[in-house]
Amino acid sequence: MIENHMGLMEHDGLDKALTAASADAAAAGARVFPCTVFQQGQRTMISTSFPYSFLSHQVVSESVDKGGDPTNTTNRPLMTDHVKNINSYVRENQDDYILPPVTLNARQLPALHVPRGNFKNRLGFMVIGDSVRFYVTDGQHRITAIKGHGVGRSAIPGLVDLGIGFEDDSLAVLIVVEDDLKRIHQDFADAAQTKQIPASLLAVYNTREPVNSVLADLVEQTRLFRGRVDSTAKTLPKASQAVFLLNQVRQFVKELLFADYALSEDSVARQSAQLLGNKTTRDEFVTDAVTLIETMSEHMDPWREICELPTSGGPANQVADFRQKYINMTATGLVVIGRVAFEIRKSPDLTWRSEQYKRLATEIDWRRIATIWRNNIISTDDKVSTQRGPVRDASNKVKEQLGLIPDAQ
After folding, report:
1. Which of 66, 172, 352, 408 is the most exposed place for a label (fewest CB within 10 A)?
2. What region does 220 belong to: left with phi over 0, alpha with psi -120 to 50, or beta?
3. Cα–Cα nearest to 13, from 150, 117, 144
4. Measured between alpha carbons, how far is 295 from 23 in angstroms, rounded to an integer?
């Protein structure tokens, strides 16, 4: 065995490294973890996974108190609502959840046994005794969700304390060997440099959310949306051949369900679980939403013309022209349609609903120049408003024209 300049103990082969690590662990009452030892720059990194029960005892979070001095602790103030959300998510999705890796800090190099070689990336074995502690660099809310937090009625139960199998689950960890607190702070800042997923793309991926689940069916089953909704962009380019962003269609769905396109995501999750909590209610909603879109696509300009166009190529460029001329080609116009349809959907009479959807398509002037939109969603300088007040006023104008009950001011 040779101990090199990094503090790693090198052996003639992986089997001898394992034998030596096991002997060390037996002598000290420690545990052996298989790992990958590598370098980034001049620093040693260790990648492995720790069981939740091990994390609960040997990983430490040093959170700064709110209003306190963060220079002497490794972590920002703990946000208990974030911990609760993670803890609830894991408990509610026990069979198919995912927790991303966390970054931990070791103030000194743990005992590592690796095969000899001039490689910067090696398999090996890490020996960890009961007295060894790791400190959280990035991921304190995930760690705290696993360990539990607080006491009394507001306490968040630790996953390992529930007795339902979480103690056998593990979390991937990256261990950085670093004893300089300033460098540890910089590691946290560097790890936080992530780009937020655009709302439209998140709506595609997060199908646990019932609203997103019905959203995918609505797009797939309607001629206007299928192949013409941009699911990746954050904003819709002026010359785009897409009719809407997926997140804009999601706002439309929120209007159909809650009459509020700006409803907070926490409220959306709670209310959609009640309204779309099972397959029957989801299918019923999708059927009615598809009927609405298909009826308006059959009778309303310019949706009728767009449905006859290919989804790409030269003719599809007409979509950008329509966007400049029609309010129902904007996110605000789509929201207005959803708000009025919410009122129509209150009736249990499906035939009457279909008749009102057709009236919404044919009796309203959806051109931007129409007087019905002036001084509400179309300003004096011809800009489209996205604010709740103007949207409500425009929706009320449409409802009055159709003989429906307007929203309270």
Report:
1. 408
2. alpha
3. 117
4. 75
